Every structure is written in structure tokens, then in C-alpha cells.
Amino acid sequence: MLQDIRDNGKLDCLRRPLDPPIGKKEEPEERKRRLEAAWDTDCAFEADYDWMKPLKKFYGLRTGLVDRDGKPVDKYMNQ
Question: What's the predicted TM-score (pTM) here?
Fold first, then answer.
């Protein structure tokens, strides 16, 4: 999860990294982070505790949580 969030500030669980924006020169470190962020498994899980609290506290997650279709999930971000 850390690699995914470091890439673009979002936990987007992409299986294949997106190409860099057109016209943007990608630095070697940016490329490395983008490629490391790719998921080769699902990041779905079930929990019986408040799993958002540690994400917010330890990883600084404030925005960017998306569902399996890539749509923003805001209901957890405001808790």
C-alpha cells in the first residue's frame, strides 16, 4: 500500500501503471515509484475494526480512496 500511495497520493490499486501525463518529463525516481505502485493482487479485504484510523494516522491518507471501479469513496474519509 505504501508504494501505491507514494506514487500519486492515492490508494488506487492499479494492476498496470498508467503512462506519465503527456508532455511531462518523468524523472527516474518518479518512474520507479510509478512502476512500484502496480498491484498484482486485489487489495480488497474485510475487517471488524476501524481500519481507516491507522491509515490516516500512520500513512497520512486523507483523500484518494477508490472502489474497485476506480470511483472515489468519500464515506470513509470523513470519519
Answer: 0.52
